[in-house]
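Anyone have tokens for UPF0398 protein ACFFGV_06275? Sequence:
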Amino acid sequence: MKVLMVTGYKPMELGIFKIDDPNIEYVKETIKRRLIPLIEEGLEWILISGQMGVELWTGEIVLELKEEYPIKLGVFPPFLHQEKRWPEPQQEQYQMLVETADFYQSLYQKEYEGAYQFKAKDQWFLDKTDGCLILYDEETGGTPGYYLEKAKTYQEHNAYTILTITPFDIEETVEEMRMEDPNYWSN
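Reply: yep, here.
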């Protein structure tokens, strides 16, 4: 796999309402632990649309990983100025990613007009990537499910890898991080 799309929940879907919520670090660490083996196996590009939450956090992770690995970040929002209605801290995160990504381009060179832009974005990612990594919980549902369903349908006729991160995976990371902390063993 050379090109991977990463998506998942928006912060509010995870019960995260502040940009400095400590739970973000657990989500980011889980994503990072999933990406590193893929990069070591030859992954070259990670693509995101730049949505708040999992996608912005993934962008930040990729920028960190670039210090050690030959990985590239592409940001492809469905339309211009997707961030303009977001809270200011997320707008700043987004702008930083756009400025530091290896490639940035809006799929439509106009602002939001309708849901067709999101549908076209999903199809574009399916056509341009070898697979996806989705943070999703089948029991909870939510917006990442739309892409997951399209990916499953696409996978029926195309070679396409679907990788998932579940809440259980995040809990596992939390426990691993606790056990990696030397103070954990001294109590």
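The mean pLDDT is 96.
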